[in-house]
Design brief:
The complex is a heterodimer of chains A (263) and B (257).
Chain A lengths: L11 E5 L4 H12 L3 E6 L2 H13 L4 E5 L5 H15 L4 E4 L17 H29 L2 E6 L13 H20 L4 E8 L27 H8 L10 E4 L22
Parallel strand pairs in A: 1-2, 1-4, 2-3, 4-5, 5-6, 6-7
Helix pairs in contact in A: 1-2, 1-6, 3-4, 4-5
Chain B lengths: L2 H7 L5 E5 L4 H12 L3 E6 L5 H11 L6 E5 L5 H15 L4 E4 L14 H29 L2 E8 L10 H21 L4 E8 L10 H10 L12 H8 L10 E4 L8
Parallel strand pairs in B: 1-2, 1-4, 2-3, 4-5, 5-6, 6-7
Helix pairs in contact in B: 2-3, 2-8, 4-5, 5-6
The chains are: A alpha/beta (263), B alpha/beta (257).
């Protein structure tokens, strides 16, 4: 039965950036499917809110405050999660976001700003994969779900480190997929379009073909599916969830073309 | 099954039409949809497939869902329109359309004739196009629906001696994107499900498949039933913000050099 394969009972997922937004939404949805959650973020108070909501779903949640741009903290985070929970089945690399260079012209971006963007949106995912992979290999199964962005596939005006890092996340996913499939480790990425608070930066999401931005909760079922046995043969795939934006020429500049408008 | 999964993935009360239900991909689609709670019309445009479809309804019977068989003689506008009408009439609506047209023929491009061109496009792109049009009209009028077009990953790759097949799959993938854009305002979602190398059921391909396994990242060919999860996700209420996209189930083939 296909529905039974969607259950995440007895599985453990480590989710970065789980204090709010898409990360919290994935934690809650997966908890609802029976998954134990290790919630990671910098801010403990936000993590505690996520943990309380996860426990309300009847699943347990471990809170691990960590800065995923620091590889030592990442290594420690994985060790403490494995020690406490026994194993990690699913890694969701979700931490990320705009940094200081977001929206700045190239000549105003310092070396530090550039590095900061790559650290948060790319190196963090690399560090987490590197720390978790030995555990996944040892147990001969695992799932890695990297969160990219529609801006990893298209250019953005005055968006440099973010687009580069998110594009690289897609490539990281593909190389993980090709490398670790033989250990029964599947790596895929989710490419979210405009969701939640980010809609403010993109005209409220009105250019999205579905006419609205995504709600954070709408990423939940996709995370459940990708983490579950129902997705066993997905590997190296890019799952775009964006209300149709990337299917066409829709851009955050609002110039969505309508040829021969008849309705 | 727990509550979250039930809410996001259940198809209870939904009416579905599977076009191309006589082939393994269509059969898996039919089984997946009924297991998740949908009532179905299973349609084939290939004459002589009645027995296979009636056998399929017997396998679906334990789910307790309704399944209606329709076998037609050809791929024509009238036939596909009739399948859509039958779904609405028998099941009270049309919420889900799965186009699982699986027709293949392979030959070097320089010796392929126009007949091969017509045949492959009629049985893939043209049938999908007409089924989408007929179903899309009804879904838009009723305020929503989901369409999934099943295609090969060869929609995104070239393969020697498969010029027409690759092009036909790419045509369906392209259609998927544009229909998604046109119908998004009416909450009609259109996505593709891309499958990688399927395990053949015969011995004829055994040696080729052995070579292929070595090349594939996880050394596995795909069984049609391994497409069930992705298909269910795409048609389920939980995917309501996904449209104009494809979900690739290929074990990593496409991201391999």
């Amino acid at each position: 039965m296909v529905l039974e394969k969607l259950s995440l009972k007895n599985k453990v997922a480590l989710i970065t950036g789980a204090g709010r937004g898409l990360g919290r939404a994935m934690a809650l949805a997966m908890a609802g499917a029976g998954c134990t959650i290790a919630a990671v973020a910098r801010t403990r108070s936000q993590l505690e809110e996520t943990a309380a909501a996860v426990r309300q779903q009847g699943s347990s949640c471990m809170v691990i405050p960590a800065d995923v741009t620091r590889s030592k903290e990442v290594n420690a985070m994985v060790e403490v999660a494995v020690a406490e929970l026994g194993h990690i089945d699913i890694l969701i690399n979700n931490a990320g976001g705009g940094t200081q260079d977001y929206g700045k012209p190239l000549e105003e971006i310092s070396d530090e700003m550039w590095q900061e963007g790559l650290a948060l949106n790319l190196s963090s995912q690399f560090y987490c994969c590197r720390a978790v992979i030995p555990h996944l290999i040892a147990q001969q199964h695992g799932r890695i779900i990297n969160i990219a962005s529609g801006l990893g596939l298209r250019g953005g005006k005055q968006l440099f480190s973010y687009t580069c890092a998110k594009g690289a996340v897609i490539q990281l996913t593909r190389s993980l997929a090709v490398t670790y499939a033989r250990y029964n480790i599947q790596s895929n990425c989710i490419v979210p379009g405009v969701f939640g608070e980010a809609a403010e930066r993109f005209q409220g999401g009105k250019f999205v073909p579905m006419g609205r931005p995504g709600e954070y909760e709408e990423i939940g079922p996709l995370a459940i599916f990708l983490a579950s046995d129902a997705a066993h043969h997905l590997n190296g795939a890019m799952l775009t969830i964006d209300g149709g934006a990337l299917a066409g020429g829709a851009t955050p500049t609002g110039s969505y073309p309508q040829l021969n408008e008849s309705r | 099954m727990n509550d979250t999964v039930a809410t996001d993935f259940s198809l209870t009360g939904k009416s579905a039409l599977v076009v191309g239900a006589e082939n393994p991909l269509g059969m898996i689609a039919a089984m997946t949809l009924t297991e998740a709670g949908a009532d179905l019309v299973i349609a084939s445009q290939q004459p002589g497939t009645g027995d296979a479809l009636r056998e399929l309804t017997r396998r679906l019977a334990p789910t307790g869902r309704k399944s209606v068989v329709q076998v037609q003689s050809a791929i024509t506008r009238a036939d596909l329109s009739a399948s859509v009408d039958l779904t609405v009439k028998q099941l009270g609506g049309l919420d889900i359309l799965v186009n699982a047209l699986d027709y293949r023929s392979f030959a070097p491009a320089d010796i392929s004739d126009d007949n091969a061109l017509d045949k492959i496009f009629d049985n893939t792109f043209r049938a999908t196009w007409m089924a989408c049009q007929e179903a899309g009209r009804i879904m838009r009028r009723r305020g929503g629906g989901v369409i999934v077009n099943v295609v090969s990953v060869l929609a995104e790759r070239g393969v020697p001696n498969a010029s027409l097949y690759c092009a036909s799959q790419a045509a369906v993938l392209s259609l998927t994107r544009t229909l998604a854009l046109e119908w998004a305002p009416d909450q009609v979602r259109v996505n593709a499900l891309e499958f990688g190398w399927l395990e053949s059921r015969g011995q004829r391909q055994a040696q080729f498949e052995e070579t292929l396994r070595k090349y594939l990242p996880d050394h596995n060919l795909i069984k049609p039933e391994e497409l069930a999860g992705a298909l269910l996700y795409l048609v389920a209420p939980g995917a309501r913000f996904m449209t104009g996209q494809s979900v690739v189930v290929d074990g990593g083939l496409l991201c391999h050099p």
